[in-house]
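Lecture 7 notes: from sequence to structure.

We start with a single chain of 278 residues. Read the sequence below before looking at the structure.
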Amino acid sequence: MNSPKEVAANYVGVGKGKVALPVSKMLVLSILAGMFIACAAVGANTASCTIASASASKLIGALVFPCGLAMVLVAGSELFTGNTLLVIPLAQKEITVGGMLNNWLWVYIGNFIGSMIVVGIACFGTQWNLFGGALAVTTIKVAATKVSYSFLAATCLGIGCNFLVCIAVWISFCAKTVVGKIVGLFMPIMLFVLSGFEHSVANMYYIPAGLVAAANPTYAAAAVEAGVNLDVLTWGSFFLNNLLPVTIGNIIGGSLLVGMFYWFAYLRGTAKPEDAAK
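Now the structure, written as tokens:
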């Protein structure tokens, strides 16, 4: 396996490659990542929607969701939350702030497009009808819960999430085999979902899916009967109550608590990135 010091040095080159991608390729790869994460969210909701125990339901969803990052890292794509680690080559002065922000912008947009494609697939494919519409109710309930946090709470939950997501990415870079990568990323991702932390890209599926499902009168009536407050679920609450603060939290958790911490530990003061691997 690669040592943490080697991962830090290697990521400088990885990050330079990410920033150097043409926008067209960056966008296509980020659409794929958005679809991968959204499919994992679909699977997590589907697996957990008929389980009465809240904690058991959360655990089952947490065991399914790591499939998303496994596809991102093994199949190859661009995920905004993982790309917060671009602060490492930035701190090494191998990329510019403008280059990093350009990557974040296009990858974020692409992730959103990919997520919305999966929302459309689930909607028009009537996937939410599963289990007598129980999946639709869960889809709406999850979305309503996510838009009900305070700005501070959503930010903190975003920090916790991307700290673990970037640790998962970091561990996967330690491995030299596909099996090693998947096993390595599994536990941190399971922990973030089980803990109820907030992932901006996953929420690009979870909340729009709830909004679209709630537009169906049958699904909406069933959700209200189940005790869901539909009044809180709006596109405005999605962007302002969740996506904005969670994105801020994700940036802090990934770029500062993982990226900058590991840069400081392994690369700070090195004349060249490759020196850190010696």
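The radius of gyration is 19 Å. Keep this in mind for problem set 3.
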